[in-house]
């Protein structure tokens, strides 16, 4: 038997994980409803599992996706994690914010199980608080740097940063890292303004921009839709023609939709994101294939669940084991792991986050275009 250290519940229990030999279980207690639902990975995980199972599974073992809605509630996510662990899950996914991922990882640790969060970019998860955690992407300082490098290439000098504490470091510090790279490149941060998720009236922030007395070349924000779309519209209505720059939160089909009537509104919008998501990318092809199978995978974030499944399947095949600790060690020791969203990832040097390129997506005639796709070398060192 193994000890389950249930930190969030402040108690200790003895458990016997039921790791079935004929199935490989992944437990996803993720937001299927609510504001965070567009950023959840369960549809992509389910589709990739069906693809692999249809091809005979992994060494004859079928992949089973256990999924239930956590909403945005941490306690619900903790309860679901416990439920899935008791059912024999060998990998978990949860709400992709550190205040949930940390207690879920602490619970899972007693079972030898790790979290594989395919879309989490928050730096808190790489500070050594937990060691049974993987994210399939690179942290926010990398996306901030990739976006800033492109902004500098476009001649951006004066920037305004919009920051919020509501999304942890993702919304609070990513803008500051962007600003740090801009200033290192000879630009200037004119002001850092606060905002809240769910903002539908940006007029106070726009008024502050107007009062600066200097032309704003770019506005940077790490936030979610529909807030970002509203910001773009209101900046343009106010006559502010600055670039609107952001992070992976922009990577939602509803952003593209604001250019339906007037594609030019997106001409000066770009964002650094998790994976290439333009029309000819592997992600878009995967979504089309899933649709033919009767599974709707509505965007990049849902598609990232395919990376969780592919990485787990690869580790089981390589190790010949469904033991979760063996799976985690196999992933951590690998030079290269094939996934969907990019050709391959590796945790060998970074341990908890994937080494991979950072794509920057812009728009031409209202359609996504891949602007750059590199690993930035000038990432701020203070994260």
TrEMBL record:
Cross-referenced InterPro entries: BCAA_transport, Leu-bd, Peripla_BP_I
Keyword terms of this UniProt record: Amino-acid transport, Signal, Transport
Residues annotated as domain Leucine-binding protein: 23-352
The UniProt record lists the keyword Magnesium: no
Any one biological process term the GO annotation gives: amino acid transport
Source taxon at top rank: Bacteria
One of the Pfam families matching this protein, by short name: Peripla_BP_6
Signal peptide bounds: 1-20
Family: Belongs to the leucine-binding protein family.
PANTHER family assigned to the protein according to its UniProt record, in alphabetical order: LEUCINE-SPECIFIC-BINDING PROTEIN, PERIPLASMIC BINDING PROTEIN OF ABC TRANSPORTER FOR NATURAL AMINO ACIDS
Gene3D superfamilies per UniProt: 3.40.50.2300
Keyword RNA-binding: no
Protein name according to UniProt: Branched-chain amino acid ABC transporter, periplasmic binding protein, putative
């Amino acid at each position: 038997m193994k000890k389950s250290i249930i930190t969030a519940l402040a108690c200790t229990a003895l458990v016997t994980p039921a790791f079935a030999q004929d199935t490989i279980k992944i437990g996803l207690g993720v937001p299927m409803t609510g504001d965070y639902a567009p950023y959840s990975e369960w549809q992509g995980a389910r589709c990739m599992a069906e693809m692999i199972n249809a091809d005979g599974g992994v060494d004859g073992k079928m992949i089973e996706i256990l999924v239930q809605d956590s909403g945005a509630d941490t306690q619900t996510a903790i309860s679901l994690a416990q439920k899935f662990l008791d059912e024999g899950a060998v990998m978990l996914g949860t709400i992709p914010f550190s205040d949930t991922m940390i207690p879920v990882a602490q619970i899972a640790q007693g079972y030898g199980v790790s979290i594989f969060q395919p879309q989490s970019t928050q730096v808190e998860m790489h500070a050594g608080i937990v060691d049974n955690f993987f994210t399939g992407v690179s942290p926010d300082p990398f996306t901030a740097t990739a976006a800033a490098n492109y902004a500098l290439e476009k001649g951006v000098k004066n920037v305004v940063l919009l920051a919020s504490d509501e999304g942890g470091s993702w919304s609070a510090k990513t803008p500051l890292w962007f600003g740090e790279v801009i200033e290192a490149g000879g630009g200037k941060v004119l002001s850092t303004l606060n905002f809240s998720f769910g903002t539908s009236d940006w007029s106070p922030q726009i008024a502050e921009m107007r009062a600066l007395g200097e032309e704003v070349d770019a506005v940077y924000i790490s936030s979610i839709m529909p807030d970002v779309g509203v910001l773009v519209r209101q900046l343009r209505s106010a006559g502010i023609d600055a670039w609107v720059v952001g992070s992976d939160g922009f990577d939602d089909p509803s952003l593209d939709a604001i250019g339906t009537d007037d594609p030019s509104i997106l001409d000066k919008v770009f964002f650094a994101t998790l994976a290439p998501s333009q029309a000819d990318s592997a992600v878009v092809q995967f979504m089309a294939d899933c649709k033919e199978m009767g599974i709707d995978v509505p965007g990049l974030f849902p598609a990232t669940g395919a990376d969780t499944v592919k990485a787990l399947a690869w580790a089981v095949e390589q190790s010949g084991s469904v033991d979760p600790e063996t799976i985690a060690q196999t992933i951590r020791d690998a030079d290269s792991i094939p996934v969907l969203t990019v050709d391959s990832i590796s945790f060998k040097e970074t341990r908890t986050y994937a080494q991979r390129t950072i794509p920057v997506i812009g728009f031409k005639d209202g359609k996504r275009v891949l602007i750059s796709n590199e690993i930035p070398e000038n990432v701020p060192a203070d994260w």
